[in-house]
Amino acid sequence: MPSVTVENYLKHLLLLAEETAGLVPMGALSTALAVVPGTVTTMVKSLAAAGLVVHRPRQGVKLTAAGRRLALGVLRKHRLVETFLVQVLKMHWSAVNAEAEQLEHAISDTVLDRLDALLGHPATDPHGDPIPSRHGKLRSQVYATLATCPLARPVRLVRITEQSAEFLQFAEQHGLLPGASVRVTDRNLAAGLVTVQRPRGQPVALSLAAAGRILIEPAR
Amino acid sequence: MPSVTVENYLKHLLLLAEETAGLVPMGALSTALAVVPGTVTTMVKSLAAAGLVVHRPRQGVKLTAAGRRLALGVLRKHRLVETFLVQVLKMHWSAVNAEAEQLEHAISDTVLDRLDALLGHPATDPHGDPIPSRHGKLRSQVYATLATCPLARPVRLVRITEQSAEFLQFAEQHGLLPGASVRVTDRNLAAGLVTVQRPRGQPVALSLAAAGRILIEPAR
DNA sequence: CCCACCATTTTGAGTAGTCAAAATAATTTC
DNA sequence: GAAATTATTTTGACTACTCAAAATGGTGGG
Ligand SMILES: [Mn+2]
Ligand SMILES: [Mn+2]
Ligand SMILES: [Mn+2]
Ligand SMILES: [Mn+2]
After folding, report:
1. Does B114 contact chain A (CB < 8 Å)?
2. CB of A92 within 8 Å of any CB in chain B?
3. Which residues of A touch B3 (CB under 8 A)?
């Protein structure tokens, strides 16, 4: 069985691959895992020796099919656990990422299946992140974001890709939850500011970076 | 925070202390943890240096107050998780010990409290094992067992201290569950055999060793 | 009292993962 | 097209466990 460390490397590699074309740079992994770059080089070489990743020195890494399979398993655990924590234990969506970070390594496939059934086989977690299927299918649709969508048109939030507890608390406070319907009333590229209006409520100002992490689809 | 290894050493030390007078011999810990004796010596010395245990060379180990406090926390997690797995996820009581062995190290105190509330603050787990309170109180009553109770009198099973999946499956098949009411009809010390009769059903034969792991109280 | 046996400890070695700091390669900048 | 900057790799060292096998210490039988 892969160690907790290996599972974390593979899962983060999968997440980074989603937002990176081609190889994931070593530095990105190093940042995501909060370890020093040299450590990543060492670990990636051993993952490569185990056939879980391909390492192109000085260029980056990517998962092999075997590595991706393992990573999807961990990600499925992560997101189902998050869903459980919110729906059954009524925890706040800003707190569950940290919890799931540990639990994803401790849950057996048996427990996972039971959890999945208990929750009614959900397709997404509390943040709108898609949950990989039992057989490793991951619905990864490309969405527009609050940073790119047309102005004034009503849009529905489908997913928040920012994990930090502070941001999620802020978002919830302003009704920016998956399913909410809003309109972008202004986008000031110079100032890097996006203004969002929801049906009944004050307008909310977001940085362009934050807006880019809120995925949407046209409403109605 | 203590590592998974340290948590396991402390928890097993607590369990072994329950069935041992005085110091726990190094060999007992070595067996319980499935590591070689020399490893236990090394680890116990480092636990002693951390103030979690007292080590009397060539005699044994015991928990300090600090070590016991930590061990009770782990045991509480273990038993609440077992209860959750049986009551909410409907798993078999013979499967949950192995699952909880991992999860006990991955659950935060926050999640634990929610779980405890969801389950209605249970006093015992599915095996009848007492669950330590949030503040580290462990009800440890001394019970008779099927190996020691008077013959022919009705007794109620309160706790099964044997954890092996095979035994628990066997026990369940013969209705030997916490709460069940039975009578010991015969006890043959020479053959090491105990015969148990339950209200409607065939008599069951148990080894003396197995019978000693089924704790009871007088019924009615 | 001594020897044999058993539990425990010691010694030496290995694996997994990590960091700090120096070396190297690739990319920008001028 | 150097020189400077930045990313990555290498090197050397450390922590936390673990095992195999040899050494040691108690105990209990003769
Ligand atoms: Mn994790
Ligand atoms: Mn999520
Ligand atoms: Mn454990
Ligand atoms: Mn139990």
Report:
1. yes
2. no
3. none
B106–A103 C-beta distance less than 8 A: yes
**What's the CA gap between B218 and B220, in Å, rounded?**
7
Let me know: does B79 contact B101? Beta carbons within 8 Å: no
3-class DSSP state of B15: helix
Q: How confident is the model at residue A192 (pLDDT cuts 50, 70, 90)?
A: confident
DSSP letter at B37 equals H
Q: Region A57-76: what's the mean pLDDT?
A: 98
Q: First and final CA of chain A: distance in angstroms?
A: 47
Q: Do A108 and B102 touch (CB under 8 A)?
A: yes
* A window 19-58: Cβ near strand C (< 7 A): 34-39, 42-43, 46, 58
- For residue B102, list chain A residues with Cβ-Cβ distance below 8 A: 106-108
Which residue, among B160, B161, B192, B155, has the nearest Cα to B177 in the 3D structure?
A: B160
Q: Side chain identity at B150, as an amino acid letter?
A: P
Tell me the pairing of strands A53-56 and A60-63. antiparallel
Question: Domain spans of chain A?
Answer: 4-63, 144-218
Q: Which chain C nucleotides are covered by protein, judged by CB under 7 A? A: 7-12, 16-22, 25-26
Q: Kindly give the confidence (pLDDT) of every residue in chain B, 220 residues in length, as a single tens digit, with 9 standing for 90 and above.
A: 899 999 999 999 999 999 898 999 999 999 999 999 999 999 999 999 999 999 999 999 999 999 999 999 999 999 999 999 999 999 999 999 999 999 999 999 999 999 999 999 999 999 999 999 999 999 988 999 999 999 999 999 999 999 999 999 999 999 999 999 999 999 998 888 999 999 888 999 999 999 999 999 998 7
Options 1.25.40.10, 3.40.50.150, 1.10.390.10, 2.30.30.90; CATH of B144-218 = 2.30.30.90
Q: Does domain B4-63 have CATH number 3.40.50.1010?
A: no
Q: Residue B190: what pLDDT?
A: 85
At A147, phi and psi to the nearest 5?
-90, -15
Q: How far A157 CA sits from the closest chain B CA (Å)?
A: 28
Residue B24 pairs in a beta bridge with B61
Nucleotide nearest B27, CA–C1', reads C7
pLDDT tops 80 at residue A153: yes
